[in-house]
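Today's session is about reading a structure prediction critically. Students often jump straight to the picture, but the first step is always the sequence itself: look for stretches that repeat, for charged clusters, for runs of hydrophobic residues. Only then move on to the predicted structure, which in these notes is written as discrete structure tokens rather than atom positions. Here is the chain we will use throughout the hour.
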Amino acid sequence: MITVVEEIYHEGGPVADKPLLRSAALAVIHNPFAGYYAPDIQGFMDDLRPLGLQMAEGLVKTLGGGARIEGYGKGALIGAAGELEHGALWHAPGGYAMREAIGGTKAIVPSAKKVGGVGARLDVPITHINAAYVRSHFDSMEVGVNDGPRADEMLLALVMTTGPRVHSRSGGLEAWDIKGLDGLR
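Below is the predicted structure for this chain, in token form.
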């Protein structure tokens, strides 16, 4: 397992008084379906739930508590002997774990998945935790590990941020204007 924290003070503009924090929790685990086609794989989602919660709770702690979290995303990078569908098994355990650890979020957790070799990288999309259309929080974080995932492994990722992009000025719905209960507006 790896936890990464980025502190972003500027991206060519003025230095921010308080940095945007982007953090990723990564776990490289054995893929029990690598190398063969298994018709029934859904039960593995239940096996992943405790790992998802452990990773999400660790990220919340790393970033200073659930009240500080404004953005999130998840992803799965599947080793070459696996298939893309194995990454889909992370959707529910990873997403629901983050929503539980933060508490009270309304927006769907965006995700990315792909099959790749050792050292492959994955861009995990990030959106606002309560409204998917808050443009200032559209972001991504590149994740990966140097020695994985091996062919029979999968890398699972959760990402959280503490705010909008450091120099956000693209307009659109602002976080303080979020209305509704569906996570969309």
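Discussion point for the tutorial: The chain is about 20% helix and 30% strand.
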